[in-house]
Each structure stands twice: as C-alpha cells, then as structure tokens.
Specification:
- By secondary structure, this protein is α/β, with parallel strands linked by helices.
- The protein has two domains: 279 residues, no CATH class; 220 residues, Carbon-nitrogen hydrolase (Nitrilase/N-carbamoyl-D-aminoacid amidohydrolase).
- Helix content is 46%, strand content 13%.
- It is built from 19 helices and twelve strands.
- A six-stranded mixed beta sheet has the order 5-4-3-2-1-12. A six-stranded mixed beta sheet has the order 6-7-8-9-10-11, covered by helices on one side.
- Helix 1 runs parallel beside helix 5 and helix 5 packs across helix 7.
C-alpha cells in the first residue's frame, strides 16, 4: 500500500507541475500513469473484514453499505485529489487570511475542507477505474474509452454542481499554450483536451504494463498476478495515433483558417489600464481620489496611442457611480477627455421585486461624451466570497471574504454595444465558466472582455492559472478576448489562443493593441466557419456524450461481471 500511495502522490505532483506557473505541460501526458499502476488490481479493505465472524453484526452491515469509503482505490483517489488541489489552489489561504480577516489556522482548515470536497471526484474515479483496470471481461480499447469518458464526466459534474461548481484547473487547461492541440476546443470545449490527456495516459500505461510484465511478476499488488492479460497494444496505439494526428491537423487548419478569415474583420484599437491598486487600500475612502488620478493618467496615456475603447479592471471605481456625484463626474470627465469609450468595473445597486435594495458587481460602459450607455451585472458570483449559498436556511454561515459586498446575481446575458461594436463582459472568475462566453457570442458579441481583480490571490500561482484558463474562451468561440486585471495578468488573446499582449503581476501598466472584430450581422447563414463555432452553437455536447458513454460502459462492465 505504501508503494501505491507514493505512486499516487507522484502522479498528482506531476499534474501540479503541468499547470502554470511551472508550465511543464508535457507531464500531463504521462502524469496519470503512476496512479493507474497504483489502482490496478487493488482490492477493498472490507474484504478482510468479511473473513471475520461479524456477518450478523450491525458494524459489518454498515461497513458493507459504505465499504467504498474505506476501499484502497477510493482512498488512493482521495490522496491524489488532496495532493493535486493542495498544490494548485493553495492560494485560497492567502485570500482569506490576508484579505478576509480569517485567522491563518482557520484559513488552512477551510482550504483542506475545500480540497477534500474537490477530491471526492478523483476518489470516485479511482474507485471505478480500479474495477475496470482489473477486469478480464473488457478489452483494452473499451477500457481506454471508458476511463477517458469517465474522467470528462466527472469534470463536467464538478463544473455544473449547483452553487458549488468550481471548474478550476481542469486537466485540459494545462495545455493552453499548445495551440494546434487546443483548437479542438471549438468543438469539444476544454473537455476534449482532458479526454485526450487521459486517453494517452491509458495507452502509455498499457504499453508499460506490457514491457514490465516479464520483469515484475506482480505489477499492481502483491498476490495479484496479471501478466497474462497484457499484450502489445498495436491496434489501440494506431487508433490513439490517428486521433491525435487528426486533432493536430484540424488544429493547424483552424489556425490558418482563422488567420485568413480575420483579415476581413473590422479593426478596433483597444487600451488596457492595469492600475495595480493595493487591495488593502482599495476601499479606503481617503485613497479614492488617488485611485481616480491613477486611472486618469493611464487612460489619457492610452488615448494618446489611439485607443478607441479603454478598459479598466473589476471594481476599479471604489464607489457607487450612481450616487457619488463629485468623483462620479470625474470618471465621466475622464471619458470625455480621452475622447474614447470607457469600460469600468464598479459596484452598483437597484431595487428588487419586493422593493428591497440589491447590490451588484457590475461593469459600466461610458461613452466618449461622458454618459453611461451600457451596464452588465455579474451573473456567476463567487460562493462564500460575494454571497452565501442557501443563506436563508443557513443564517449562521457568513462570507469568507470581508470588504466585499453581499451581492445579488445579475439576470441578463446581454452584450454591450458602441459604434456598431458588440462585446460580452466576463467579471472575475466568470471567465472559467464557458457557457457565459458562448452565451454572449450567440447573442451577437463580436469579442469578449474579462475584467478582474486578482489582487486577492497575491503573488501565487492563481493569477497565472486564471489567465491560462481564460485563453480557452477565445479559442472555443473564435473571437478575441481582452483581459484587464487590477494587479495582472492583463492581456490580449486572439481567436487561435495566441497571447498577443501580456502584462506582469503587481505592475502598473498601460497596453494598447489592435484587435479584429467579427461583424456577425454581415455574415451569410451559409458561412458556418465565420459565424459560430460548433461549441458556440451546441455547447457541451461532447462532455454530455462522455457522460452517457461512461454510464453505458459501466453498465456493460456490471452485466459482464454478473454473467
């Protein structure tokens, strides 16, 4: 068991290294192999209990019902998840301890609880996959398809869990810089890349199992000989090779295709203001005037470089534009002085159905004449950060981050418009929920803008992870994505996923670039490639298909075992 645990930890550590900022993305293609060896042939610990004379006891009855919780594969999956998530989302402690007013010990406990929750998904993966790997009733190709589909199904569930969906560091995101590979995301979303990663890992595992069968008589576990079931997977290898080559050919073709198509799109000069405002002083009333001055200087500098649309980060205006007359007018005057449109993040409020006041995390579009001409209210709020789920039923639970309003969710997924241009706004971690991006594009957005305040993360891996995940929103919908972050990382991503501009973190910067904007109302319905991608039109069909396929395969496994 110790060897299995060490293999599991090694596997998870390899995936941690595959993600930013380490960016050893090649490790993802072999990182799951140690876990597969650890899982192969594992038996549940409950079997040992059955040898004891406890058949009629209540204890064994309970154990038999919940035996999966103490099974070796389940626990190995849990170890994998805890190692992986503690290594990738450790920044949660920084956010809560430094900006949430939560003691460091309590913050660490919350991180552990979050990691445990997220680890339930790889734990279920370990439990089921161990049974499939040790099964004699199914062939290797069947196992490859099932294991790959099952992983995607679990990622899809993790993304869409009600109130607690958290699709951070899905495996496919590790490949954000592998441009030819990730173009398939405009069909499958990020889940397609996750599928390929698991598929290749399964194939590598099968090849190594074949090579090692003569040297190691008991590969998976002591007393479980499986040497006779391994063979050189030539046919399966050929299929994996064909799939990968097809994906890469498609990727190169799509990159070339988008470069050619985008030449005919209209151009727009955009400016990005990265204010680098200290989170500890951001909401200090005495510091408001200085914040406005910082963004004024950045904006005028951008305007001199020809920016037609200037973008400020999330909550860059530290007061309510609707009610703050003096400073509010100064914001409008900045737009006038720059003679450009200004998109800025700011809190807002309005009346609810019952007449109560509701607060929103919003983005305002201000015209060059100094008037608000558009507003978007954040729809996907951060649970326990911007609101408390089920607060009505759990009044004793409070937000983990103080200094942030108790917000209500916006209702309308409507692009903002100016001068014949239309764009969708993603506020903060809305950029990791692809259904919002595709929703904006389907509603007519010609490009996407992500405004965020990643100062909460500090100098951790989170700003790098957040930026790399946003890259996929451009690739999925084949539009430009512009990102403005308070402390970074800000930048510009083209429809093929190329990063044209990229700032540092905790730096004050002004960046200007020219993007190409698709004018969808001028395209013919017949021109599919220029209009919507498959993913924009149909969403997570691939992930749902994997969910169905995994379920069907599992039914086959159960049926064959009974036979």
């Amino acid at each position: 068991m110790l060897r299995a645990i060490l293999l599991t930890i090694l596997s998870a550590a390899m995936f941690v290294a595959a993600f930013p900022p380490i960016d050893m993305e090649f490790l993802a293609w072999i990182g799951m192999v140690p876990l597969f060896f650890a899982l192969s042939g594992r038996k549940t610990e409950v079997n040992k209990l059955r040898n004891k004379k406890l058949k009629k006891s209540l204890f064994l009855f309970l154990i038999s019902r919940f035996s999966f919780l103490i099974s070796a594969p389940f626990l190995l999956g849990l170890v994998w998840g805890i190692t992986f998530f503690m290594g990738t989302i450790y920044w949660v402690v920084n956010s809560m301890a430094n900006y949430g007013g939560i003691p460091i010990i309590t913050s660490i406990i919350i991180l552990i609880l979050l990691a445990l929750y997220l680890s339930l998904f790889p734990a279920c993966f370990g439990l089921i996959v161990s049974k499939v790997l040790s099964s004699f009733a199914t062939g290797l190709l069947f196992k490859i398809l099932f294991v790959s589909s099952f992983w995607v199904a679990l990622e899809y569930i993790r993304t869409n869990m009600i109130t607690v969906g958290f699709p951070w560091v899905l495996l496919g995101y590790s490949q954000s810089s592998f441009l030819p590979l990730i173009q398939i995301a405009d069909i499958t979303g990020v889940y397609g890349i996750s599928f390929l990663i698991i598929m290749v890992n399964m194939f590598v595992f099968s090849v190594l199992s074949y090579w090692l069968r003569r040297k190691v008589a008991e590969i998976p576990a002591k007393g479980v000989s499986t040497t006779h079931i391994y063979r050189l997977p030539i046919k399966e290898g050929l299929l994996v090779f064909i799939i990968l080559m097809s994906v890469l050919v498609y990727g190169f073709k799509r990159i070339y295709q988008m470069d050619e198509v985008s030449k005919n799109w209209k151009t727009l000069r955009i400016g990005i203001a990265q204010g680098n405002i200290d989170q500890g002083r951001k909401w200090d009333a005495s510091f408001q005037q200085e914040i406005v001055a910082i963004y004024k200087n950045l904006t005028l500098t951008l305007a001199k470089q020809g920016a037609r649309l200037i973008i400020w980060p999330e909550s860059s205006v530290p007061f309510h534009l609707q009610s703050e007359k003096e400073l509010g007018n100064e914001i409008y005057n900045i737009a006038k002085a720059s003679n450009a449109y200004l998109l800025t993040g700011a809190d807002s409020y309005g009346l609810g159905v019952g007449g109560e006041i509701k607060y929103y995390n919003s983005a305002f579009l201000i015209s060059s004449g100094g008037e608000i001409i558009g507003k978007y209210d954040k729809i996907h709020l951060v649970p326990f950060g911007e609101y408390v789920p089920l607060k009505k039923y759990l009044p004793f639970i409070h937000k983990l981050v103080v200094g942030v309003g108790d917000f209500s969710s916006g209702k309308w997924l409507q692009p903002l418009e100016f001068d014949g241009n239309s764009f969708g706004v993603l506020i903060c971690f809305e950029s990791i929920f692809p259904e919002l991006s595709r929703g904006f594009v389907k509603e007519g957005a010609g490009f996407l803008i992500n405004i965020t305040n990643d100062a909460w993360f500090g100098k951790t891996s989170a700003p790098y992870q957040h930026f790399s995940q946003a890259v996929f929103r451009a690739v999925e919908n084949k539009v430009f994505l512009i990102r403005s972050a308070n402390t970074g990382i800000s930048g510009v991503v083209d429809p093929a996923g190329r990063v044209k501009l990229k700032s540092g973190i905790f730096t004050r910067e002004d960046m200007v670039d020219t993007i190409m904007v698709i004018e969808r109302n001028q395209l013919g319905m017949h021109d599919f490639n220029q209009r919507f991608t498959f993913y924009t039109q149909y969403g997570d069909i691939f992930a749902i298909g994997c969910f169905i396929l995994a379920g069907s395969c599992w039914l086959v496994v159960i049926r064959r075992k009974k036979m």
